[in-house]
Amino acid sequence: MTALDQALEYFRENPEEATSSSKFYDLFLNTLFYVPTVMEKLEVEAPEEEEDLSVPMIVEVDGLNYLMLFDTEKRLKDWAQQDAPFLTVPGHMISEFAAPDLYWALNVGTDYAKQFVPEETAWIKSVVAQCKSEIVKQTGATEE
Fold first, then answer.
1. pTM for this structure?
2. How many domains does the structure of the chain reveal?
3. How far is residue 80's CA from residue 61's CA, in Å, rounded to a whole number?
4. Which of 27, 104, 135, 139 is deepest in the core (most CB within 10 A)?
5. Is residue 99 domain-resident?
6. What is the DSSP letter of 49?
């Protein structure tokens, strides 16, 4: 059981308690996730030129598109039932770059699986943007 599993379990058992959700989401944003990838062809300048590009795998289930996220490499391999290519990305970066209509699927195939719906991911994105804005204000740095 990972720290994220423990936080999710506590969050599920105590949904009305504000600290249970803040602990889970804080851990989520600061966890390094293993995101399975696939190779896609990317056209460059001339149509006859192409490059291979590793992009996150999107899985369609019942007409919904899911970004698959695993908090350990073993969980990713167990889900894929083989070694699988992946990127490692912290949760806060996932929230910044994932498409707004994309669902997220965390630790599928475990007792600690969680689905994030677009309304929830939009809220997470807004929290990250607000935190970045506060850091910029406090440090005088510029946002990239």
1. 0.84
2. 1
3. 16
4. 104
5. yes
6. E
